[in-house]
Specification:
elongated; mainly alpha; 3 helices; about 10% strand; about 40% helix
């Protein structure tokens, strides 16, 4: 699953009045309660999706993965390479 599914699953675990929308904004420091793995592509630096991925795997781990990806000429964004984060 990707970042959208992660946010949806984590939101469903919370007590929210309106299940049609969520205000959950996942940033570093968030404690994941449902999700324990993620498949996602390489996101744009400084984006909210990058913040979610860093919250999940740790900033240093993601920056190391991005360094490897850029050094290896991986493709970024929606039609790029993906990573499994456990």
């Amino acid at each position: 699953m990707g970042t959208t599914s992660v946010r949806a699953l984590e939101s469903c675990n919370m007590e929210i009045k309106n299940r049609e929308a969520t205000s959950l904004f996942i940033t570093p420091g968030y404690k994941f309660n449902v999700v324990d793995a993620m498949i996602t592509n390489f996101h744009v630096p400084e984006s909210t999706l990058m913040m979610l991925v860093c919250a999940f795997a740790g900033f240093d781990n993601i920056m190391n993965a991005y360094k490897h990806a850029t050094d290896s000429k991986y493709r970024f964004l929606s039609f790029g390479d993906a990573m499994l984060i456990i």
